[in-house]
Design brief:
The protein is built from eleven helices and two strands. With 227 residues, the protein is an all-alpha fold. The protein folds into two domains: 103 residues, Helix-hairpin-Helix base-excision DNA repair enzymes (C-terminal) (Endonuclease Iii, domain 2, Orthogonal Bundle), CATH 1.10.1670; 101 residues, Hypothetical protein, domain 2 (Endonuclease III, domain 1, Orthogonal Bundle), CATH 1.10.340.30. Strand 1 and strand 2 form a beta hairpin. The model has no long low-confidence stretch (mean pLDDT 97).
Length: 227
């Protein structure tokens, strides 16, 4: 198997350096033009691909203009507008409720604190981190999506299983000025090479440092299952 660096801090630095070289244009892939659109896009992206979300929001953002439009929309109509998105009924409820709170409690503006964001329906820490980073230029954590979760375990950066605990580990070892970039690098690499089901370890720039590399290791450290 690949040989990790001597410490998790050093391993994280190697991961960042190599992925920066591999994906120099790494950035968020969701499309939006304001903070509310960003919030809605991230809510929709839960257990759904960004590509699908971008296809759906192209017409959604033309139809609905501002928090009041979403808050006063009929549940069935909004759900129908989201029907290619996973769990579209629940997500329509979240969006309507979150926009009601934005109107009633935040003067129609998307809030800019972790506590206020996570009080909104359908918004957990991951979603709040994305909105803070890309909507308010506030970086106070690391977004742990499925790609970050998978890669950080495979690369030996954490043994934790749940996103909040993984984020705590990563914030200890990833340099703070790389917190935002780290997520995008993991997403790009997770999509291109280190996929969930059949990672291309033979063409991976991190294979020699990956304790989970297929062909060397018998175990996928992301799942704990044999390859």
């Amino acid at each position: 198997m690949g040989t990790p660096r001597e410490t998790t801090q050093a391993q994280a630095e190697t991961v960042i350096d190599r992925l920066e070289a591999e994906y120099p244009e790494s950035a968020i892939s969701l499309r939006y033009s304001n903070r509310l659109e960003l919030l809605i896009a991230v809510i929709l992206s839960a257990q759904c691909t960004d590509e699908r979300v971008n296809q759906e929001t192209e017409h959604l953002f033309e139809k609905y203009d501002g928090a009041e439009d979403y808050a006063t929309a009929e549940q069935d109509e909004l759900a129908a507008d989201l029907n290619s998105i996973t769990y579209y009924n629940n997500k329509a409820k979240y969006i309507r409720s979150a926009c009601e709170s934005i109107l009633e409690d935040h003067d129609g503006e998307v809030p800019d604190t972790m506590a206020e964001l996570t009080d909104l329906s359908g918004v957990g820490r991951k979603t709040a981190n994305v909105v803070l980073q890309h909507g308010h230029d506030i970086v106070e954590g690391i977004v742990v999506d499925t790609h970050v979760q998978r890669l950080s375990r495979r690369l030996g950066l954490t043994e934790e299983e749940y996103p909040d605990r993984i984020e705590e580990d990563l914030m200890e070892i990833v340099p703070e000025d790389s917190w935002q970039e780290f997520t995008h690098l993991c997403i790009d690499h997770g999509r291109a090479t280190c996929t969930a089901q059949n990672p291309d370890c033979g063409d991976c720039v991190l294979a020699d440092r990956c304790p989970s590399a297929k062909g060397d290791s018998e175990i996928d450290l992301a799942s704990g299952d044999p390859w």
